[in-house]
Write a structure and sequence with these properties.
Layout (H helix, E strand, L loop, with lengths): L5 H10 L3 E5 L3 H10 L3 E4 L3 H4 L11 H14 L5 E4 L8 H13 L4 E5 L5 H9 L4 E6 L5 H4 L9 H17 L3 E5 L3 H10 L4 E4 L7 E4 L1 H4 L14 H5 L2 H13 L12
Parallel strand pairs: 1-2, 1-8, 2-3, 3-4, 4-5, 5-6, 6-7, 7-8
Bound molecules: 3-methyl-2-oxobutanoic acid.
Length: 264
């Protein structure tokens, strides 16, 4: 949506209006998403998987995210664009500031970082220097070698409590949005109710403040492995813009994600 800002997204959460978002990597799709009324777009490091054909997001560099951010910005000059900080680009607060500057100069409105309490100082430093931050908890694809697979997170009581604690701490440090990936519906609902910042779910159930999907998944282009939370909107809608409009409509009216796309 043109003229979207973080304060408008926060007001949408407060009003109970669902936020809808998708990844974008190039100008043509960014233009299509903007024209359909997408609330914001993420230049995700999932570009490693869906654009480059890598097995994980780990090989993606800041320069590559910046390149795709520039393209998305050219396609959607007025859109709210978030850019992922890739693996090992924010190991210290100083490095994070240096690398985030490249993404902001490329046209991002906000950067996203994966991780919990170890990021508090980094988030404070970025926010104090006028870089808005989205945190990312639950399944962290950049930590795939530690997690040992793409599994649902926060199923045990202690892990769920830990995720809630980390979410509150990230908000307290200045994060203005949270992406929550692959957690049980109940945990998605609990975290969304405890935070005042928008919580955007992907595989986190229907009760988060909004949803995000990788655009290739929305169009059914992911032929190998299909996560449970994915829906092929193109199959139902028939053409690209109708598919985007259907995704937006079903997130806004609460019909997507349904129980068949969510984890117990
Ligand atoms: O890189 C990505 O696509 C993500 C997802 C959560 C949408 O971070």
């Amino acid at each position: 949506m043109a003229g979207m800002t973080i304060s408008k997204l926060t007001k949408m959460k407060a009003a109970g209006d669902k936020i809808v978002s998708v990844t974008a990597y190039d100008a043509s799709f960014a233009k299509l998403f903007a024209s359909c009324g997408m609330d914001f777009m993420l230049v995700g490091d999932s570009l490693g998987n869906v654009i480059q054909g890598q097995a994980t997001t780990l090989p993606v560099t800041v320069e590559q995210v910046a390149y795709h951010t520039e393209a998305v910005r050219r396609g959607a000059p007025d859109a709210f664009v978030m850019a992922d900080m890739p693996f090992m680009s924010y190991t210290t607060p100083e490095q994070a500031c240096h690398e985030a500057a490249k993404l902001m100069r490329a046209g991002a409105n906000m950067v996203k970082l994966e991780g919990g309490e170890w990021l508090l100082e980094t988030i404070r430093m970025l926010v104090e220097r006028s870089v808005p931050v989205c945190a990312h908890l639950g399944l962290l694809p950049q930590s795939i070698n530690v997690l040992g697979g793409y599994k649902v997170q926060g199923r045990e009581q202690s892990a769920a409590e830990n995720t809630v604690r980390q979410a509150l701490a990230l908000q307290q440090a200045g994060a203005q949005m949270l992406v929550l990936e692959c957690v049980p519906t109940e945990l998605g609902q609990l975290i969304s109710s405890k935070l005042s910042i928008p919580v955007i779910g992907i595989g986190a159930g229907p009760h988060t403040d909004g949803q995000i999907l990788v655009m290739h998944d929305m169009f059914g282009l992911n032929s190998d492995y299909l996560p449970k939370f994915v829906k092929n909107f193109l199959a139902e809608a028939g053409d690209l813009s109708s598919a985007v409009e259907l995704y937006i409509k079903q997130v806004k009216d609460g019909t997507f994600p349904g129980p068949e796309h969510s984890f117990e």
